[in-house]
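Form 7-S
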Amino acid sequence: MGLNEKFFRSADEDEGFFNTVLYTGNGGTKEVTGVGFQPDLVWIKRRNGTGDPGMVDTLRGNNSALFTNSTSAESTLTGGNISMDVDGFDINTYGSTWANLSSGTYAAWCWKAGGAAVSNTDGDITSQVSANVANGFSIVKWSGDNSNMDIGHGLNSAPEIVIRKSLNLLNSWAFDTSAVDGSWDYLFLNTTAAKANHSSISLPTSTTFNTSGTSYNSSSMIAYCFHSVAGVSKVGSYTGNGTTGQLITTDFQPRFLLVKCSSGSLSYHDWYIFDNKRTPSNPSDAYLRANESTAEVQSPTYNPTFESTGFRWEPGDNSGGWNASGFTYIYYAIA
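Output:
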């Protein structure tokens, strides 16, 4: 496939585990289809104007949202809800100021977990888990008691990413990862801060992940767990070169890419999201930020090319956001 050829899958193809869908809001009731499966996690971001990036999932129910650019607790969707459907999701009268503004354009990133939650007793307490074991993704819900404890995640390999958020307290999104150097580090999904080393919690195992106390385990909690699966997804890191195009190998052609500078905390060290639906021809020149409400940005120079074995930063790309010389970056890519 040439670099300027289309690289998206057909709209009617069953994507199975992950898919991006685009839609235009109407300010009222909206049926969003074309996902190819019934999702368990939907992450929505407005493109053509400001709008908070919000998550809904099956474990928390269809009447609440969490916003990845905010420390806010879970928000009740007053006046309506967002419910999962067999081929997407329905926005039921709610969402005119967030997910369904009239004439607003939106991207929705959708994941399939395991459907309805089941009880998991692998940890110190019982957790509620929806797990897609084959594709390395699970959603976990539990109630903490302000102590360090192990929580069952429902997968068969140790997660390389665990994203945690309190549902009823004001706190940042903990983005725990082993992607940088194999040790268990943390960043915050809602900020540009660099990574730091965990001192009080240990690396996940094939059955559990460890949680810290205080506000990260003293309330009702939600976690999204991911690990690499050959040909499906890749969690990893690389060092920017600042001058020449370099290929970051994933062993598949990405359709989705989340990337963040982990060694710096400058104002542009955001959480950048690229996908092949918003820019279906290479290079992928439009990005959204997971930690900002800002609109989509069309990047005329600095952008990735999704190749058959990974993603390549364009020659001469010295963007500090994702390829500055000597800086370390983490990423999560999906085929």
